[in-house]
Specification:
It is a single chain. The chain is of the alpha+beta class and about 100 residues long. The chain has one domain: Alpha-Beta Plaits. About 20% of the residues lie in helices and about 40% in strands. The longest helix is centred in the first third of the chain and has 11 residues, at about 25-35.
Length: about 100
Amino acid sequence: MSGRFEEAGRRRVLVRIHGKVQGVWFRAWTEETASRLGLQGWVRNRRDGTVEALFDGASEAVEAMLEACREGPRLAQVTSVEGHDQPAPEAGQGTPGFHQRPTI
């Protein structure tokens, strides 16, 4: 992961997950797991076959989510997880809850 942005125990990371990660319920699994961990953000498929997600929340929860992504759901075959810490959103610009976005 590139340089960390952490403020008051919070972290925001944009990740790209490579491998067999589409058509295996990865987005639904990510939404469920991130919500259970209390994270905010989103997940989406990319046309290049990867999955992209933004995880925002308590540093420990973000780290747990990154670790979970290295395995993914049962049918996934993750080959790598690339993450880049992101700056905190402007006041009122955060993503409430965790949701799926359309493919880009």
